[in-house]
Amino acid sequence: MERRELFKILAATAAGSQASAQHQHGTAAPDLASYKPRFFSASEYETLDHLCEVILPAGAQSPGARQAQVRFFIDVMVHFSDAAEPAAMARRPEGHGGGGAGEFW
After folding, report:
1. Domain that holds residue 90
2. Cβ(4)–Cβ(12) under 8 Å?
């Protein structure tokens, strides 16, 4: 490899890293205080918030599920999941599966 070739490669790499460091994100973060759930009803969304906080409570060194907005994450993930999956979840309010003994899902 010649020295000129090496400098061309280094210059191209430096220019490429500068361009990627200055990219723009498409949208701003949503206002979670006025967020309306997309999949869950309002009461289900509040219940989800309480359940998540029970599972992931705030500690001395880390935020809990409420501060981390876990309910928002779950609502968005379920809303944008495969079209058949939310319908299947809505049909099974009793939980996973519905089959016989030993069936996990």
Report:
1. 33-94
2. no
Report the distance separating Cα 45 and Cα 1, nearest Å: 62
DSSP letter, residue 31? -
**Paired tokens of 10:** 């280094």
Report the number of distinct structural domains present in the chain.
1
Closest CA to 57 of 72, 76, 70: 70
Three-state helix/strand/coil letters over 64-98: CCCCCCHHHHHHHHHHCCCCHHHHHHHHCCCCCCC
* pLDDT tens, residue by residue, 17-63: 555 556 666 677 778 888 999 989 999 999 999 999 999 999 999 99
- Residue 8 identity (one-letter amino acid): K
Q: Which amino acid is at 26?
A: G
- Torsions phi, psi for 41 (to 5 deg): -75, 170
Please report whether residue 1 resides in a domain. Answer: no
Model's pTM, two decimal places? Answer: 0.55
Tell me if 65 sits within 8 A of 56, measured CB to CB: yes
Is residue 80 included in any domain, yes or no? yes
DSSP 22: T
